[in-house]
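Example complex used in Figure S2.
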Amino acid sequence: MKLNTNSNAYIIIYSAILVVIVAFLLAFVYQALKPMQDRNVELDIQKQILYSLNIRDLDGQEAQVKYLTVVREIFPYQGRKYYKCNVDGKDIVVVELKGMGLWGGIGGYIAIERPQNTVYGAYFNHESETAGLGAEIKDSQAWQEKFIGKKLYKDGSKDVALSVVKKVEDPETQVDCVTGATLTSNGVNDMIKTCLEYFPEEFKSADCCQATKNKECCKDAAEHACEHADKECCKADSCKHVKEDCCKEKTQECCKESTAVAE
Amino acid sequence: MALFSKQNKEVFTNPLNLDHPILGQVLGICSALAVTSQLKPAIVMGLAVTVITAFANVIISIIRNTIPNRIRIVVQLVVVAALVTIVSQILKAFAYDVSVQLSVYVGLIITNCILMGRLEAFAMQNKPWPSFLDGVGNGLGYAMILVIVGAVREFLGRGSLLGFQIIPDACYDFGYVNNGMMTMPAMALILVGCVIWVHRAYFYKEK
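Predicted assembly (470 residues):
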């Protein structure tokens, strides 16, 4: 029997069947591979965080193990993630960065050493910057290493002083931009400014508390800690009065944990 | 008909020389320029295109008699798009860093003219086995150019091959500098031009 492959009914039925078959096939492949893809994405993020901590030579499983030993706590605050890390006994916070480059989104991680608030390391990523120019923010390790040791704030100011500029006037806080990629560099600059602006108040007041033992600061610190991260509350032992209240209300389990550790 | 009859061999070898998709027909240039700044993505891209062309050719060839003539391009596109999506998902699952490097270009295989060209010109008229050979031949022809261009660009642009440093540090100490131009797509165009020139001059014979 010869089908009339040009009749309208045939065409409609043919395309309907074809689409249904393809849809099922794709759905199946997607479902089957999803767990592996998710793991890859997660591993990629972990690697980027390690890059920002100047740990660049690990791959796959090793990277994951290192990540788990380095990162102590993930601390979400105002829609951004902060990773509390400990590298060689140093207290470091890795801040997730997101911003706009020239052609598309850029992102990255910047590691801030505390309490002195200097940059410990940085890693940047991009979606579609120009290869050889804007893409250098990701490809050039040398450029990323220029950030190391820069100060986040100028003495006494709470504004972010760390910036990427064409002409470095203050080598303590400024980084030379990528040659030929002014707009991408500006993007990195803006990204750093906006993402670090909300560097949690908690950290700032905790620094202040530690440095000056000022009561206001310490109270702030403990309150912030109480609001945002329960475990932090119990660690803020410089301000016991707040600590007790806050522990009572919110983090009884956490207190039990920390007393258990203390014993 | 034998599996490797003279005719079938020609189907396979023609696209590698006389009827080369890039050199002869100048198809698929766009992606050849974009993904060849390093060797590894170039190889993966070449393999991906080979696999997709071969299987799309086979599938279209199997159903060629049932495809309504008026929507044949749509049907071809659906088949290619499905295959491309599957390949891109597999890459994401098993070779994540490569899939990040290739980014949109895997998806854009859908619009690669080599695929549509082969489906329309070959698979719609031929049996599955020759279509498969034709697909593999064209894919390999494409991959060949990608590998050549990718190797030259990575060697001159970064001093490495497959990520391993080839040019010793001593050369850099003497003042050798990587050619940054090579990392730009424009140089790929010039290189492809050179390859076509060499091919026309030494290998290509008019029928």
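Chain B touches chain A at residues 37, 66-71, 74-75, 78-79, 82, 85-86, 89-90, 92-94, 96-97, 100, 103, 180, 183-185 (CB under 8 Å). Chain B has one domain: 26-203.
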